[in-house]
Amino acid sequence: MAEPFDLSGKVALVTGASSGIGQATAQLLGLRGARVAVAARNAARGLETVESIRAVGGTATLIEADMEVAADIETMVEAVLEQFGRLDIAFNNAGITGRAAPFHEQDLDDWGEVIMTNLTSVFLCMKHEIAAMLRSGGGVIVNNCSGAGVMAAPGLPHYTAAKHGVLGLTKAAAKEYAAQGIRVNAICPGFIETPQLSRFLEDPEVRAAAVSGIPAGVMGQPDDIARAVAFLCSGEAAYISGDTMFVDGAVMCR
Q: Which pLDDT value is given to residue 219?
């Protein structure tokens, strides 16, 4: 009998896998036995993730791809199929926060960049991933969302709109492809210690204020999200689809 959460024989694609949540998830999926396609815009840092998976006996390959370039996304999925012959798991993780500013001062270019990276790229990833999974008899997609997918983030209307949209895409695809063996879920991390978040928490007072709003009393780690993704991608979650999982120390509990 296979161990719980065993992913041996599966092929997994992780976007934004050069650091933080993406890197931790790629590493854990590799440790659980999946062959991992590490997609990253920064090839040098993506290669570090690949090497860390190989160092513990896993199988991984680097695919250089920019989630702001539609052609890169299509080529990325094609590369997975060329190298591994199938696609069973996809974690669409790449994203940016964008520039914080009052709603009426938001810049159209910044809006476009955030919507492209956080929403349109997820649509394009899912479009090509689903097509690949249909050919191999099913699969699992997990989209990285945010608490901003259900509650507004002041000063970040573009980020809020994009993350609300990711939940909509998740539900639409889950319902449409459930009968064809494809499960689609979203995960909403809370305050997680990542390089992206650290830029906003350099001021000790800002960090203390953020922690004070977490019922658990501590910030999460990338591994906390990785474990949740691994669960959703495993057979243990075989009847879970269209769900939004909050991993945030009870911040969004209501």
A: 86
